[in-house]
Each structure stands twice: as C-alpha cells, then as structure tokens.
Design a protein that fits this description.
The chain is an alpha+beta fold. It is built from 6 helices and 11 strands. The protein has 2 domains: 145 residues, MutM-like, N-terminal (N-terminal domain of MutM-like DNA repair proteins), CATH 3.20.190; 125 residues, Orthogonal Bundle (Helicase, Ruva Protein, domain 3). The strands form 3 sheets. The protein has a 5-stranded antiparallel sheet. A 4-stranded antiparallel sheet has the order 1-6-7-5, with helices on one face. β6 and β7 form a beta hairpin. The chain is globular, with a radius of gyration of 20 Å.
C-alpha cells in the first residue's frame, strides 16, 4: 500500500501541472472509484467542472487538491494500488483507468489527470474543507488552515512542520501497546506504514514488541528522528516499489526497496551485526527485525 513517501512523490509530481489549472471536463468510467463520494458520478463531475485548483496537499496517505473558494477539495486515497498519472489530453485510456480529469493550465496547456486502480480499493471524492483545530496549514503543500472532512481524523505526519514532537513522545510513553502498533496508529501519527515502521525500529535498535511505556523519552525521541530520516530517504529515492502498482505521475517506479535494512529481508544477514533478520506475523502482516540488534525489553 502506498505510504507517506509514495503519496508525497505523487503530490509533488502533480503540483506543477494542476496548481492554477481549471478542470474542464470529468470522465467517470467506473463508479467504484467514487466510494468516498456517496452522491455519485454526476454530482462528482458537477462539483469539479469549471473549478480552479489552488494547491496540491497531503497529510499521511491522503492527497487533496483544494478548489477555488477554499471550501472544497478533490480528495484522493490511493488504497492498495491507486495511481494518479499525468497524460496528454488525447492519450489512450490506461489499463485499469477509472476516472479522467481534463484540465487546462495557463502555462502547460491541456492535460489529463488519470486515476487508475487495479484493485479498486482507492477512491476520489469532492469533500468539504474544515478548519484545523491548531490553526496550522492542513497538510504539506497547502498554506490554508483547512483539511478535508475525510482526513480530519488523521493525525499529522512526522514530516509535517506542525507535527508535535513533544506531544508524540508523551503519548508514546503513556501507552502499554507494542511500539510498532503505536507507530501504525493513524490517530497518533500518520503515514508511516508497515515498511517504514520496520525500517525505523531497526535503525533505532528497538524491538517491535517493546511497550511504549517502557521506553525512555530519549529513546522515543531517537526513534522519531529515525522515522523522519527513513521517510526523507525514501522520499528522495522515489518511494518503495515492489511491483508495478506503485509509480509516480509519469509511470516510473521508486527504488527505496534497494535500501531496505530489515523489511522483506527474512533470513538474510543484518547489515549492522550479521545476525539473521527474522520475520514474524503481525496484524495480518509481517514484522521484520534483527533479534540481536533489537533486543526485547
């Protein structure tokens, strides 16, 4: 599933092409791509056509394009396999294309923004923007203190300038849950995901089953720092691509998979100590860690 780095790569790729562009037409090929827009395809198109896109914003795994008047936004969740692609206005339909937005930009001219999704778990919606409780910008890429209603329950992510580092440390140390569960709790911190949780815990030398309340404030701060480093590195390398389902807006894969130290390396030598990386079942997924470097408290 695309996580923060992958969605940020998509956001950054979309921004130059769509910010300042006007939506001229909307083609909905599959209503399953509008599960988050309950009023259906006609309403979806009517709310977009003729509207000007003012920004491209992201919080965690959610992406949104605020529309002129700052009261609504085109909101996207990529699900398991969603893709946002930039194409020529008359380009042939993409495989698994669900929705196509026709836009016109004052500098780039006419473009097509295609939402393709093989597994159909992703969705687009035109959503109402709500004021942020802390009066800070809603997400990366936006200057307005508003966030889509469907995103309001999601906590800020570790790369957000308004992320509360001190509040995060305090919250972690109050919890009896395993630290990996805490990292995946979207109400506390968003965008980390299974891959980046494993990588960050490996970097911080913390066992994934260590209870939050057993960690010192220094250890939690070190972990948060490693989370930020891992996310920044993944972002610089275009995200993590294990198959063709995650690509940027030009259809190119990320290459952070080549930099992984723990995730997906079961049975291989730990890059730090040489011991074997273990894989264990975790919440219908898997945890990867080094039992020698990451001793359980």
């Amino acid at each position: 599933m695309p996580e923060l780095p992958e969605v940020e790569v998509v956001r950054a790729g979309l921004a130059p092409a769509v910010v300042g562009a006007r939506v001229t037409a909307v083609d909905v090929h599959d209503d399953r791509a509008l599960t988050r827009h309950p009023l259906g395809a006609e309403d979806f198109a009517a709310r977009l056509e003729g509207r000007l896109v003012t920004a491209a914003a992201r919080r965690g795994k959610f992406l949104w394009l605020p529309l002129q008047s700052d009261d609504e936004a085109l909101t996207a969740h990529l699900g398991m396999s969603g893709q946002m692609l930039l194409r020529a206005p008359d380009a042939a339909a993409e495989r698994h294309e669900r929705i196509r937005l026709h836009v016109e930009h004052p500098l780039h001219g006419r473009l097509a923004v295609v939402f393709a999704d093989q597994r159909t778990f992703g969705s687009l919606a035109v959503d109402t923007l709500l004021d942020t409780p802390d009066a800070m910008p809603g997400g990366h890429g936006s200057t307005i203190a508003r966030v889509p209603s469907q995103v309001a329950h999601i906590a800020r992510d570790p790369l957000d300038p308004a992320f509360d580092d001190r509040g995060f440390v305090t919250a972690v140390r109050r919890r009896a849950s395993a630290i990996k569960r805490i990292l995946l709790d979207q109400s506390l911190v968003s965008g980390i995901g299974n891959i980046y949780a494993d990588e960050s815990l490996w970097a911080a030398r913390i066992h994934p089953e260590t209870h939050g309340r057993s960690l010192s404030a220094q250890a939690v701060r070190r972990l948060l720092g490693e989370v930020q480093v891992v996310l920044e590195k993944a972002l610089a390398e275009g995200g993590t691509s294990f198959d063709v389902q995650y690509v940027n807006v030009n259809g190119q894969a990320g290459y952070f998979a080549h930099s992984l130290n723990a995730y997906g390396r079961s049975g291989q030598a730990c890059p730090r100590c040489g011991g074997p990386i273990l894989r264990e079942a975790f919440m219908n997924r898997s945890s990867h860690y080094c039992p020698r470097c990451q001793r359980r408290r």
